[in-house]
Amino acid sequence: MERDEADEAQGRLVIPGGSNLQVTDLAPNVAVGMHRTPSIDYNIIVKGEATLITPDRNGGTAETLAKPGDVVVQRGTLHAWRAGPEGVRWICVLISAERVKGEDGKELPDVAL
After folding, report:
1. pTM for the full predicted model
2. I want to staple 93 with a disulfide (CB 3.0 to 4.6 A). Which of 35, 42, 71, 86 is the partner?
3. What b/e readout covers 35-63, taking b as 16+ CB neighbours within 10 angstroms?
4. Which of 24, 16, 76, 74 has its CA nearest to residue 50?
Protein backbone atom coordinates (compact mmCIF):
# COMPACT_ATOMS: atom_id res chain seq x y z
CA MET A 1 0.00 0.00 0.00
CA GLU A 2 1.38 3.40 -0.98
CA ARG A 3 1.04 6.50 1.16
CA ASP A 4 1.02 10.00 -0.21
CA GLU A 5 2.27 13.17 1.49
CA ALA A 6 -1.24 14.13 2.63
CA ASP A 7 -1.58 10.87 4.58
CA GLU A 8 1.84 11.30 6.15
CA ALA A 9 1.21 14.95 7.03
CA GLN A 10 -1.79 14.20 9.26
CA GLY A 11 -1.25 15.61 12.71
CA ARG A 12 1.58 17.93 11.63
CA LEU A 13 1.24 21.70 11.44
CA VAL A 14 3.44 21.94 8.36
CA ILE A 15 5.23 19.40 6.17
CA PRO A 16 8.85 19.93 5.07
CA GLY A 17 8.89 22.29 2.10
CA GLY A 18 5.20 23.12 2.56
CA SER A 19 2.95 25.71 4.12
CA ASN A 20 -0.33 25.78 6.00
CA LEU A 21 -3.00 28.30 6.93
CA GLN A 22 -5.15 27.71 9.98
CA VAL A 23 -7.60 29.51 12.21
CA THR A 24 -7.08 29.02 15.94
CA ASP A 25 -9.72 29.72 18.58
CA LEU A 26 -8.85 29.56 22.27
CA ALA A 27 -11.56 29.75 24.91
CA PRO A 28 -11.29 32.40 27.63
CA ASN A 29 -8.16 32.07 29.78
CA VAL A 30 -7.02 28.84 28.09
CA ALA A 31 -3.25 28.43 27.85
CA VAL A 32 -1.04 26.63 25.33
CA GLY A 33 2.26 25.44 26.82
CA MET A 34 5.78 26.33 25.70
CA HIS A 35 6.61 24.97 22.25
CA ARG A 36 8.31 25.74 18.96
CA THR A 37 7.64 24.60 15.40
CA PRO A 38 10.01 24.01 12.46
CA SER A 39 8.36 26.87 10.62
CA ILE A 40 8.04 30.62 10.26
CA ASP A 41 4.61 31.53 11.63
CA TYR A 42 2.63 34.68 10.89
CA ASN A 43 -0.08 34.95 13.58
CA ILE A 44 -2.70 37.63 12.92
CA ILE A 45 -4.97 38.37 15.88
CA VAL A 46 -8.52 38.95 14.60
CA LYS A 47 -10.72 38.76 17.71
CA GLY A 48 -10.10 39.01 21.45
CA GLU A 49 -6.69 39.18 23.08
CA ALA A 50 -3.87 36.78 23.85
CA THR A 51 -0.70 37.01 25.87
CA LEU A 52 2.42 35.78 24.10
CA ILE A 53 4.87 34.28 26.61
CA THR A 54 8.54 33.90 25.69
CA PRO A 55 11.65 33.05 27.71
CA ASP A 56 13.74 36.04 28.75
CA ARG A 57 17.50 36.16 29.11
CA ASN A 58 17.32 35.91 32.92
CA GLY A 59 15.69 32.46 33.11
CA GLY A 60 12.18 33.87 33.48
CA THR A 61 9.54 34.80 30.95
CA ALA A 62 8.38 37.93 29.16
CA GLU A 63 4.72 38.57 28.36
CA THR A 64 3.37 40.60 25.44
CA LEU A 65 -0.32 41.38 24.97
CA ALA A 66 -1.54 40.84 21.39
CA LYS A 67 -4.76 42.56 20.27
CA PRO A 68 -6.85 42.52 17.08
CA GLY A 69 -4.76 43.72 14.15
CA ASP A 70 -1.46 42.72 15.75
CA VAL A 71 0.81 40.32 13.87
CA VAL A 72 3.16 38.05 15.80
CA VAL A 73 5.95 36.43 13.79
CA GLN A 74 7.55 33.30 15.26
CA ARG A 75 10.79 32.03 13.71
CA GLY A 76 11.30 28.79 15.59
CA THR A 77 11.04 30.73 18.84
CA LEU A 78 10.11 28.93 22.03
CA HIS A 79 6.76 30.44 23.08
CA ALA A 80 3.40 29.90 24.78
CA TRP A 81 -0.02 31.57 24.53
CA ARG A 82 -2.71 32.47 27.06
CA ALA A 83 -6.11 33.64 25.85
CA GLY A 84 -7.66 36.74 27.39
CA PRO A 85 -10.93 36.83 29.35
CA GLU A 86 -12.97 36.99 26.10
CA GLY A 87 -10.99 34.25 24.37
CA VAL A 88 -9.02 34.81 21.17
CA ARG A 89 -9.08 33.97 17.46
CA TRP A 90 -6.07 34.26 15.19
CA ILE A 91 -5.17 33.29 11.67
CA CYS A 92 -1.78 31.67 11.26
CA VAL A 93 0.24 31.13 8.10
CA LEU A 94 3.01 28.57 8.71
CA ILE A 95 5.87 28.20 6.24
CA SER A 96 8.24 25.27 6.55
CA ALA A 97 11.74 26.11 7.83
CA GLU A 98 14.78 24.29 9.10
CA ARG A 99 14.71 23.23 12.72
CA VAL A 100 16.37 25.65 15.13
CA LYS A 101 19.85 24.64 16.30
CA GLY A 102 21.71 25.67 19.43
CA GLU A 103 25.25 27.00 19.59
CA ASP A 104 26.50 23.40 19.70
CA GLY A 105 24.78 22.65 16.37
CA LYS A 106 22.22 20.28 17.91
CA GLU A 107 18.51 20.72 17.11
CA LEU A 108 16.54 22.35 19.92
CA PRO A 109 13.48 20.46 21.22
CA ASP A 110 10.00 21.43 19.98
CA VAL A 111 8.56 21.39 23.50
CA ALA A 112 10.09 22.89 26.64
CA LEU A 113 11.19 20.14 29.02
Report:
1. 0.78
2. 42
3. ebbbbbbbbbbeebbbebbeeeeeeeeee
4. 24
pLDDT tens digit at each of 113 positions of the chain: 444 544 444 456 777 888 989 999 999 999 999 988 889 999 999 999 999 999 998 989 999 999 999 999 999 888 999 999 999 999 999 999 888 788 888 887 776 54
Sequence-distant (≥ 6) Cβ neighbours of residue 89 within 8 angstroms: 23, 24, 25, 26, 45, 46, 47, 48
CATH H superfamily, domain 20-96: Jelly Rolls (2.60.120.10)
